[in-house]
């Protein structure tokens, strides 16, 4: 897919292509008992004529993944209708982006995190620039990372982690002083490979 936009219509076409590719492939649905169900929202914007992804740095006071770079998202509550509702609610609570301002593009894969979460990933688009409203108890800062970095797999290094007898590569990316690793890096790397590559 084109990672540089010469005109505004290029980003519109990019979003439509993402929507088509997400809809045309089967999602990876995972089921594993005893896990906390959660959902994240991968938000894409046209910044500097290129697709960028919204990421957050979590505060040191949150209960899990302290200080790590992550997508907006979190655990499912009893009042949530479904996983997509979780992703919308958490995005609003963490960074102040309302559901009405998110152009929904589709659902990506499910993941199991080594910290015991079953994570469902959704994809949307927002306008840039956006006036974020950070929840300072959860979100320390915002990062807009170029999607091409993950499509081209320009990671600094990777480490092998063993989870339930299987070895997995854990990627480490760096951008503007932020370290992007763990499940967030895994999702973005997979998205770049499975969805964005021609």
What distinguishing features does this structure have?
198 residues; 4 helices; 37% strand; alpha+beta; 7-stranded mixed beta sheet; 3-stranded antiparallel beta sheet; single chain
Gist?
The chain has 198 residues and is an alpha+beta fold.
How would the blueprint of this fold be written?
Layout lengths: L7 H17 L11 E12 L2 E9 L10 E2 L2 E3 L7 H13 L7 E10 L4 E9 L13 E8 H5 L5 E7 L2 E10 L2 E4 H15 L2
Parallel strand pairs: 1-6
Antiparallel strand pairs: 1-2, 1-4, 2-3, 2-7, 5-6, 8-9, 9-10
Please tally the β strands and state the result: 10
Mean pLDDT: 94
* Secondary-structure element order, N to C: HEEEEHEEEHEEEH
Determine the N-to-C terminus distance: 6 Å
Shape: globular
Write down the Rg.
Answer: 16 Å
The description of the largest β-sheet is: 7 strands, mixed
Q: What structural category do the secondary elements indicate?
A: alpha+beta
Q: Residue share in helices?
A: 25-40%
Count every helix, treating DSSP H or I runs of 4 or more residues as helices. Answer: 4
Low-confidence stretches: none
Beta-strand fraction estimate: 35-45%
